[in-house]
Amino acid sequence: MITYQLTSMAIGVGLAAIILFLVRRDHLHGPYAIWWIGAAATVALLGLFPRLFDVLANKMGVSYPPVLAIVLGFGLLLLKMLTMDLDRSRQERLIRRLAQRLAMLEARENPSSLQSSFPSGAKEEETRVNATEPETVALPSPARSGKERE
């Protein structure tokens, strides 16, 4: 007869094996793998030592230990979702900055392609804006002004 302890331990070991396989094939990267290895180790540990969970539930004041497992699992899922959203936000910010830098580099290399990408009305408006801007005056650099004095 298979007990729930063996089932839990088999699930934990199987999950750890799948995670290691995914890491080895480069389908799962380091920080994500650490999270899932921790989850697999927890499941395997609770399968090996089921009384540990009963003691933990008793210390936390939970009268029915399986409820503690459900609450902790739900809390960990929420934490995992939060870390995923934080990581996704960081990646989106990075992609946006890279796109802006690429656009600036392309505009610096080939400014004529930037003007051709505007619609005809926008070109006229841009030339009006440039015509109203004051001309910049070149100031002498301090090194030249020193030579001119001599």
What does this structure look like?
With 150 residues, this protein is mainly α. It contains seven helices and no strands. The protein has helices spanning 4-24, 30-48, 50-59, 65-109, 111-116, 120-132, 142-149. Helix 1 runs antiparallel to helix 2 and helix 2 crosses helix 3 (50-59).
Topology:
Elements: H1 4-24, H2 30-48, H3 50-59, H4 65-109, H5 111-116, H6 120-132, H7 142-149
**Count of helical segments?**
7
What is the terminal-to-terminal distance? 103 Å
Q: Helical residue percent? A: over 70%
Largest sheet: none
How many distinct beta strands? 0
CA radius of gyration is 31 Å
SS strand fraction: under 5%
Q: Determine the mean pLDDT.
A: 78
Output the structural class.
Answer: mainly alpha
Large-scale geometry: elongated
Low-confidence stretches: 144-150
> What is the helix/strand order?
HHHHHHH
